[in-house]
Design a protein that fits this description.
This protein is α/β, with parallel strands linked by helices. The protein is about 50% helix and about 15% strand. It has nine helices and six strands. About 40% of the residues are buried. Bound molecules: adenosine monophosphate.
């Protein structure tokens, strides 16, 4: 199995090669083709299995492809993750893989000033990586337009639920389009995560 057979385009393949990755991990080999096909996906994977690339690579491919075709602007993809550290980590992965993709990426999390995050959201950065708490604060202040959202990723869904973020996830669901592609990743799969999926 190689990255070339998974359906990713040359811009992503070049960045992957430069990262030194030779073969996809099992979660990448099974998720990437399904996400590229436009399927909803629930992935059970721990940190360390390569799950971040499993959702970021195909999503970046789609954002790259569709941007070329439609020239659309506005936020098109949202990744929710439970902590600031994870948001930053996902952001680092995205910046490595998107080296040859034209894309504006915003990171939104608490504990820092809101100004630049508000600006990024108002500008409609294509990809937003956020913790639910800060995102909802900014949503309540009217800084968010997710009417054109096409992709939603819930990363570490079990942890987000443990941390009490379910009300925020429900609130979010009310303002995003029903027609979208959903990806949910969780280290465990108890009944409450199954219901969420
Ligand atoms: P994650 O599970 O997403 O936190 O990834 C764990 C680590 O594995 C990160 O440092 C990634 O850069 C690295 N990684 C992800 N996919 C691959 C791959 N296919 N080959 C080698 N390293 C990888």
């Amino acid at each position: 199995m190689s990255f070339e057979t998974l359906g990713l385009g040359p811009n992503l393949l070049r960045a992957i090669k430069e990262s030194g990755y030779e073969t996809p991990t099992p979660i990448q080999a099974s998720s990437i083709p399904l996400i590229l096909e436009g399927r909803d996906l629930t992935g059970i994977a721990q940190t360390g299995t390569g799950k971040t690339a499993a959702f970021t690579l195909p999503m970046l491919e789609k954002l790259d492809d569709r941007a070329k075709k439609s020239g659309r602007t506005g936020t098109r993809a949202l990744v929710l993750s439970p902590t600031r550290e994870l948001v930053v980590q996902i952001g680092e992965n995205v910046s490595t893989y998107s080296k040859y993709v034209q894309l504006r990426v915003a990171q939104v999390y608490g504990g820092v000033g809101e100004g630049p995050q508000k600006q990024a959201l108002r500008r409609g950065d294509e990809l937003v990586i956020a913790t639910p708490g800060r995102l909802m604060d900014l949503m309540d202040q009217g800084c968010v337009d997710f009417s054109g959202l096409e992709y939603l990723v819930l990363d570490e869904a079990d942890r987000m639920m443990d941390m009490g973020f379910m009300p925020q996830l429900r609130q979010l669901q009310e303002i995003i389009p029903n027609k979208r592609q959903n990806m949910l990743f969780s280290a465990t799969f108890p009944p409450r995560v199954e219901r969420l999926a």
